[in-house]
Specification:
199 residues; mainly beta; AttH-like fold; nine-stranded antiparallel beta sheet; 3 helices; disordered N terminus
Length: 199
């Protein structure tokens, strides 16, 4: 069994936040026209790197849910799959925020015979940033007052404790530490029900 250094990630490692990200280049549909919501995170532990995402498309695309998972070791991609399992639990309803959020997120991946498999859990320790995407894209105040109560978009960034175990190339690797995780909600559907239906 190998135990690498504690998993850590700084804010810079996640790249641009929503206030800095472009909402769509010329000729491209803004992301909020095709995406209902997404979760994504990135973990670095020793020579391991894990990136994953859980995306739900818009109502016009049938709320299709898709996943992305990448596992690298020593800078080499060793496993990539759209077939992962993500569960959200221990929901918190805090009147300080527009939507409830899951305090525990669990990701499992890989089957017998796969190059890698494992599971890790992330527990939210702190909400470190929230934002109204209507402010991000510069919606005028009068239009925001009209649209906001209907769409209820919202962005979360959390600091989480993470721990897990995985098998790579026949080795069992356990890791723990902390990471940063993001959620963007472009529509006002209730997150708890939305995420429970496909877990």
């Amino acid at each position: 069994m190998v135990r690498p250094k504690p998993a850590q990630i700084g804010r810079k490692a996640l790249g641009k936040g929503p206030s800095e990200a472009r909402s769509g280049s010329k000729g491209e549909a803004p992301i909020f026209h095709v995406v209902d919501n997404w979760h994504w995170g990135h973990i670095i532990s020793g020579d391991l790197g894990v990136t994953w995402a859980d995306t739900t498309m818009s109502r016009s695309l049938g709320y299709q849910r898709s996943f992305m998972f990448l596992l690298s070791r020593s800078g080499r991609l060793v496993y990539e799959s759209p077939d992962i399992r993500v569960s959200y639990s221990d929901w918190k309803d805090d009147p300080s925020y527009l939507h409830p959020y899951p305090r525990l997120i669990t990701v499992s991946f890989g089957e017998d015979g796969a190059p890698a498999r494992g599971e890790f859990s992330m527990r939210i320790r702190e909400v470190i940033e929230t934002m109204d995407p209507l402010d991000m894209v510069g919606v005028p105040g009068f239009l925001k007052r009209l649209v906001g109560p209907l769409t209820k978009p919202y962005y979360f960034r959390w600091l989480l404790s993470v721990e897990g175990s995985l098998e790579v190339d026949g080795e069992t690797i356990e890791f723990d530490g902390e990471t940063i995780h993001e959620q963007m909600l472009f529509r006002g559907r209730r997150p708890r029900e939305m995420m429970a239906r496909d877990d």
